[in-house]
Amino acid sequence: MKTRTPLPEGEGGTRSRSEWEAERIDPRLSVPSPSHPAAPGGPLPLPTGEVCDWTAPIGEGWRSRASRTAHSNRWITLELHDAVAPTGHPAEYGVVRFQNRAIAVLPIHDDGSTVLVGQHRFPLGNYSWEIPEGGGPKHEPPLEAARRELREEAGLVAADWRLVLEAELSNSVTDEVAFGYLALGLAATDVEPDETEVLTLRRVPFAEALQLALTGVIRDVLTVAMLLRA
Fold this sequence. Notes:
Strand content: 35-45%
Helix content: 10-25%
CATH architecture of the largest domain: Alpha-Beta Complex
Structural class: alpha+beta
Radius of gyration: 21 Å
Distance between the termini: 39 Å
Order of helices and strands: EEHEEEEEEEHEEEHH
């Protein structure tokens, strides 16, 4: 039988779920939508974590007693670790370390439409519809990488850039981190795809792109996250 966790009680007795939810949600987590963006030039508000004391680390973390590099190339390094788990038990752990950061750009035109990029993806052997994405070297500011990806993949430049997402991708096996930007004030320029890319561009209403993400047609995690974040 499943047990239910009771809602917190106040001095006046048991509160309703709506009252509890309204109290525990930090208003700083609210985010303007593309149709109601934040003030020009200002970043969209992001959670800071400072108000959530319970998110601090608990107990001991993982430890590596020894490691070796199993493979390395210009994109990734595969490390094998003789590790100790938080429980104290020994464990073998493989970690994929990325040479680049993941970069994602959600372009929003003045009419509320966005741009999706279609391309074949090798690992899963599928065709994927995504917002403009790519990799940025760790020595390069993420915003500069975002400008490049938008230009190369979508043939667009933007006057207004806003960092709206920072994420860890598959953090149980990789150290890859992602930065997501909202791009506004768009203008056309030449597309500059990579020599290995065959890209198809579609300009669609934002609501249609969001629906494709919600129904599972779009499955790329950064695209889904950025559409939901906006």
